[in-house]
Design goal:
The protein has 13 helices and seven strands. The protein is α+β, with helices and mostly antiparallel strands and 449 residues long.
Length: 449
């Protein structure tokens, strides 16, 4: 495994930050509402011929228009609003809609369902506190409008009166719609934010692994550049040794300098030998060699790691071991799975590599407690973990605290390489977890691709 570098801490899923709303978004939505409200009022008054308090309705609509103009002049539309300011603007929208409904029939007006809009916007963009406040406000306004309102605009000389049970049904529908839409929108927005944060973490891990893979090339380049000055140092040291008397006080130091120079040249020669190979050759590795490289840092603990392999002996083409290209994503993904198996195992981890003409598979088994049934279906999602300490301040140095991102990142990187990853628990009476990683052989075997 590669050395771990410190990274910016990720917050638990329940604390993923709520994104701030752009002023432009609320202004555009309000302009859309203004156009719709104006068109509806004028259509009812002049096309249908139903009388309504036109002046008061247009005044309420004009107030929203003036608010939009003021916000556009006062602030740039690209500015992101603080949560309090965005919440207050949505409170205004609920109040303005309530005034229009009060003037045009209350809950008898079919447009009463628009109470859902500000609450849904809050659920996707603001904290749950503001969503609750707006929900209670919509609840209060709907309850008030069920009893107090101007008559519903209707044919002159006639009065439209809907049954109380219908008004009660409208009230229940609005409240249910507000609650359902808020919960649904909140859940979808939270999942989107969590996935975005987890994918960002995956990109950081992949970039780090790519930088580490590039170190070999940098080492070869450094060996090439340092060869000439080191040869000059060795030449000057030998000249000094010939000129100094054999029993002089500095003879031993010069001899040590020459020997250490020779050692440096041997080290640089080994580094340069990688460059002597072609990059393509060095980027190749056999499956079992790659597995052993990943397991090597994990050996030495109380857990025994056993590696087995097998091939489809009926097919000569499949008998040869698959040759992988060195891929940081595969390296990190398999390394994470092996680390998890060693962490949870009681005494033994089994790694079984198999290959056939059509696919290459790697199975990792441990004898630990296995996957918890209550989160089994959610494994592979971001911020899902069974490790202790998640979101807690334990204060115990060296304790491995799970963030719920390790397996998500490993699964994502392996799937990007073309693999399918599946999970299972070992069948009773055995216990432990099993992870299957399967690639199409043509996707990873350089000899078959």
């Amino acid at each position: 495994m590669t050395e771990e570098y410190p990274a910016a801490p990720l917050r638990p899923a329940s604390e993923v930050e709520i994104g701030m709303v752009r002023l432009r978004t609320l202004v555009r939505l309000r302009w859309l509402a203004i156009v719709g409200q104006t068109g509806a009022v004028l259509f009812v008054e002049f096309f249908l011929g139903f009388p309504l308090p036109l002046g008061a309705c247009l005044a309420a609509i004009a107030l929203s228009a003036w608010l939009n103009i003021f916000l556009t002049i006062r602030w740039r539309k690209s500015v992101r609003l603080q949560e309090t300011h965005a919440g207050l603007l949505l409170v205004y929208d609920v109040a303005q809609l309530a005034v229009l409904l009060y003037l045009t029939g209350g809950l008898e007006n079919p447009f009463a369902f628009l109470f859902l809009v500000p609450v849904t916007i809050s659920a996707t963009s603001l904290s749950i506190r503001w969503t609750l406040w707006l929900g209670f406000m919509a609840f209060g306004c709907a309850s008030f409008l069920a009893f107090e309102h101007f008559p519903l605009p209707w044919i002159p000389g006639e009065r439209m009166e809907l049954p109380d049970i219908y008004i009660g049904g409208m009230w229940a529908a609005i409240i249910s719609g507000v609650v359902f839409s808020a919960i649904y929108a909140r859940r979808i927005a939270d999942e989107a934010r969590q996935m975005s944060a987890a994918l960002s973490a995956t990109e950081m891990v992949l970039a780090r692994e790519q930088r580490l893979s590039a170190l070999d090339g940098l080492a070869a380049a450094a060996a090439h550049e340092l060869g000439t000055p080191l040869a000059t140092i060795a030449l000057v040291a030998k000249e000094l040794k010939r000129e100094l008397p054999p029993e002089g006080p500095h003879t031993e130091d010069i001899g040590l300098l020459i020997s250490q120079t020779a050692r440096c040249r041997e080290i640089l020669a080994r580094l340069s030998s990688r460059e002597a190979q072609t990059d393509e050759v060095y980027q190749r590795t056999k499956l079992l060699v790659m597995v052993e490289d990943l397991i090597a840092p994990l050996r030495g603990s109380d857990v025994v790691i056993a590696v087995t392999s097998s091939a489809d002996n009926d097919d000569k083409a499949a008998a040869s071991e698959p040759v992988f290209r060195r891929n940081p994503g595969i390296t990190y993904g398999l390394g994470n799975l092996l680390e998890n198996a060693v962490d949870f195992a009681e005494a033994r981890v089994e790694v079984d590599a198999r290959w056939t003409p059509s696919q290459v598979s790697l199975t990792v088994r441990d004898d630990g407690p296995g996957f918890h049934q209550n989160i089994f279906d959610r494994l592979g999602d971001p911020f899902v973990t069974t490790r202790p300490g998640y979101g807690e301040e334990t204060g115990e140095p060296g304790r491995h605290e799970g963030m719920g991102l390790g397996f998500f990142i490993a699964k994502t990187l392996l799937e990007r390489s073309g693999a399918s990853v599946s999970l299972a628990n070992r069948q009773a009476p055995e216990h432990g977890a099993v992870v299957y990683v399967v690639w199409p052989r043509s996707a990873v075997d350089l000899g078959k691709g």
